[in-house]
Amino acid sequence: MPAYQTIEDVIGRTPLVRLQRLPGADAAERGNVLLAKLEGNNPAGSVKDRPAISMIRRAEERGEIRPGDTLIEATSGNTGIALAMAAAVRGYRMVLIMPEDLSIERAQTMKAFGAELVLTPKAGGMEYARDLAEQMQRDGKGRVLDQFSNLDNPRVHYETTGPELWTDTGGQITHFVSAMGTTGTITGTSRYLKEMNPAVRIIGAQPSEGSRIPGIRKWPEAYLPKIYEPRHVDELVLVSQADAEDMARRMAREEGLFAGISAAGACWAALQLSLQVRDATIVFIVCDRGDRYLSTGVFPA
């Protein structure tokens, strides 16, 4: 009988594709190659599928949780969707806490997987949501996996995302660009790439002052993710909301890449980089798909 795969088995090993039109003549003349890692191809539609299943599996292995338990997580969207999927697969009740101003599509997707939503005031942002999750855990209402301090988050990128990029570029990757939210992707991936070649440059995309870009955060010092390892990030690039939203539309129209706003921010940073370097292989993470942002008005109706 064939050995059929499960949903968990098809997380990761996502495509790496070359941008054809956006880089323009300047990048081509400089001998640069821009590659996009299509994490929206994961089963629940984002790069967060990797840490979601990793955090649950490893907590089970350590005996910290077992099927039937209640899991709690503060989320801006993609992690919540991924955890809702993973909880459904492995038999957990999932309670997700998120600010009320996030996109309708994300909330609806979480509910489709059977998760329960707790919406918090917009003014409190993710900081308030994180505080509430910790309070619920102290009150005995469930266990917080805590993507912001859980080492199983960057660990899975060290074990999977980094090796995939190294293999798929034949070890030729020179620059890695990633949006920074929980920082799990950039922390785990950069650690692996730096071990393989210390010369690989790691660039993190953060929002400029006043910009609100879903999936990209610049945390107050007190809320900086504990998993973040700044020594592995060579440069921080500030991306404006306007540039990220414009790039999301351009990615769809000029490359056929229908991606989210944080992915577009990483793409913008990668394109800026391509005008400054030569003979480079630049990889950026397309962390999710654009259909999660249709209600935001970023894409034309």
From TrEMBL:
Enzyme class: transferase
Keyword Amino-acid biosynthesis: yes
PANTHER family in alphabetical order: CYSTATHIONINE BETA-SYNTHASE
GO biological process: cysteine biosynthetic process from serine
Organism of this sequence: Sphaerotilus montanus
InterPro entries in the record: Cys_synth, Cys_Synth/Cystath_Beta-Synth, CysM, P-phosphate_BS, TrpB-like_PALP, TrpB-like_PALP_sf
Electron transport as UniProt keyword: no
Name the record gives this protein: Cysteine synthase
SUPFAM superfamilies tied to this protein: Tryptophan synthase beta subunit-like PLP-dependent enzymes (SSF53686)
Catalytic activity entry: O-acetyl-L-serine + hydrogen sulfide = L-cysteine + acetate
EC number, UniProt record: 2.5.1.47
Keywords, alphabetical: Amino-acid biosynthesis, Cysteine biosynthesis, Pyridoxal phosphate, Transferase
Gene3D superfamilies with a match to the protein in the record: 3.40.50.1100
UniProt family annotation: Belongs to the cysteine synthase/cystathionine beta-synthase family.
Pfam families named among the record's database cross-references: PALP
Tryptophan synthase beta chain-like PALP domain: residues covered: 7-288
GO molecular function: cysteine synthase activity
Biochemical pathway: Amino-acid biosynthesis; L-cysteine biosynthesis; L-cysteine from L-serine: step 2/2
Residues reported to bind pyridoxal 5'-phosphate: 78, 181-185, 262
Needed co-factor(s): pyridoxal 5'-phosphate
Residues with PTM N6-(pyridoxal phosphate)lysine: 48
